[in-house]
């Protein structure tokens, strides 16, 4: 079992290039199932465990998916789909596997998928996905831990209102509606940049989608879609993680490829905490000459402060000056990193969905766990700022969302490495 070994105290300095967005590439890979003619070529595909998993899901369906990790390029030939049943052992690894249901329903008229897995940060129900499919005319049956969906009369356009702006449900229903008969209107959809990226890819394939990124998406169904070439947008959460790392280590880092428009709440909160931010067309520069200052933040659906940055900011606030209040409104179980930060000397009190962080603590290195993907990133950031040696276990969570994290941090001056070690429960 591998772990990360970190010796803290080094300010990060230099340039780091951000890769393609994990949360954009996974639905786009799923959408490639709709390409009944030609071969899809995706560029800037990050080398992540989740990418390998969803490629394996496609391959289990009889689709050819060949990834060139050295070039971050993925070829997908979905001209033939051999089966519409995705195996449990793959789907349980990653929640995003469920995104193949929309494309399969649209193209094959049926799909069978095990109930999805993923990080244990909350319930993240799939009922909004299923309600959307039913509104389009699909018949849903859940038996023995699997979801069976079929559309014997084809999918029909409908007006669909989302009770909550779910990213996954918006993506899944948008893909299904792309080939539904007639017009579909999605009201109160998710607004994330990854939604816009998926819509742009579908439109390149021949779909007719308007309004992605707004509160009302209009989709005029077409009979079929073709494969297409496409480049994935940069990962705003990876960018935000390096921005926080620069600020909390009192460093000076240029985050190449970061898109300011996608990071407004992160930029605003870092400025409020005392970091110096310079934005230009090539990326974002983050500098900090002294300790960060306490701030309050509340996670919200986009364009609010991203829940995927909450853990990283909490690590920074643990060493900031003053008392901060962090409120998590998106996922009910996203404070699992608090216990790990406490082990490092942080002073944090949790009351329901609110955490009070008494900053100024001197963090010290110890053995901690990556309890989920973003919590793992927070542990790495805490280790970079801590005295002594920090060992982060369960790093398979981190590998799900950060491409070449160790090499990128080493290039910025961090003392971090992967190492084989026996890991025992804390």
From TrEMBL:
It is an enzyme of class 2 (transferase). SUPFAM superfamilies: EPT/RTPC-like (SSF55205). UDP-N-acetyl-alpha-D-glucosamine binds at residues 95, 124-128, 308, 330. The active site is at residue 119. It catalyses: phosphoenolpyruvate + UDP-N-acetyl-alpha-D-glucosamine = UDP-N-acetyl-3-O-(1-carboxyvinyl)-alpha-D-glucosamine + phosphate. Its main location: cytoplasm. It is found in: Cytoplasm. Its EC number is 2.5.1.7. Belongs to the EPSP synthase family. MurA subfamily. This is UDP-N-acetylglucosamine 1-carboxyvinyltransferase. It comes from Selenomonas noxia F0398.
